[in-house]
Design brief:
The structure is a single chain. 75% of the residues lie in helices and 3% in strands. The protein is mostly helical. It has one domain. It has a two-stranded antiparallel sheet with strand order 1-2. α3 runs parallel beside α9, α4 packs antiparallel against α5 and α6 runs parallel beside α9.
Amino acid sequence: MAEAKPSVKPATTVQAKKSSNAISYLAPLLCIVAGYVIWRFVLGAGSNFKVGSEHGGFWPEREGPKSAIYNMYLGGIVVPILIGTFLTCITFIIERFLTISKATGTGNNGDFIRKVQYHLANKNVDAALSECDKQKGSVGNVMKAGLHRYKEMISNTELSTEQKVLAIQKEVEEATALELPMLEKNLVFLSTIASVATLLGLFGTVLGMIRSFSALGQGEGGGDAAGKLSQGISEALYNTALGIGTSAFAIIFYNIFTTRIDGITYGIDESGFTLTQSFASQYK
């Protein structure tokens, strides 16, 4: 009775990437603190108002802004939170832009895959690996992992062609599983800000309206009271403007980044298809 050969499962060459995500925890907190500092000590500086008092602790009373921009201080305590939210949005936009730009690599992904296909058609795996080193992006990283397994499978005599193709495919899938989370990480902050910023703005506006009508109810009425009410409503609407502006900014860049990630994902899928089809056709 012939002894069956055990199936060989080569160890993966893909190594997990170690990356710190401290920015996810520190950035929102630091940006909120920075937002308060800007609101309290820049917009709310005593020199920016005609009448001011240092009483009130973290929210001193101010009246008569010398410029329209200082009305933001009078918009209320939600304004520093909105400023912090906007700064958080900017922080993650910069972080994602740098990460995704690096993942995109150099050159066009379509041209890169065509060059690899050309080298594989000529059975020059080393030249294909060299192209991966030049590409320096996520598509290149996945292709490189697959090519290393591709090269091993050429000299492997224990597996069938179908098993070799499956081994290459598995290697590509494992490399992809490491690359995609890195691309999508922290996008949740932009999507959350896109939803929450508008609600925060409306919340601040409602608080400002309550404060304005409360002051009107305690006044004597007349034209002066109507003027103060109009001013109070104007100040409250700064919250809405900040919230809508921040939300629009987050939505725009979220869509830009997801579009670029989709392009990289398509290149990764095409690279895996290229490797398996090339091996299956040339090493039957």
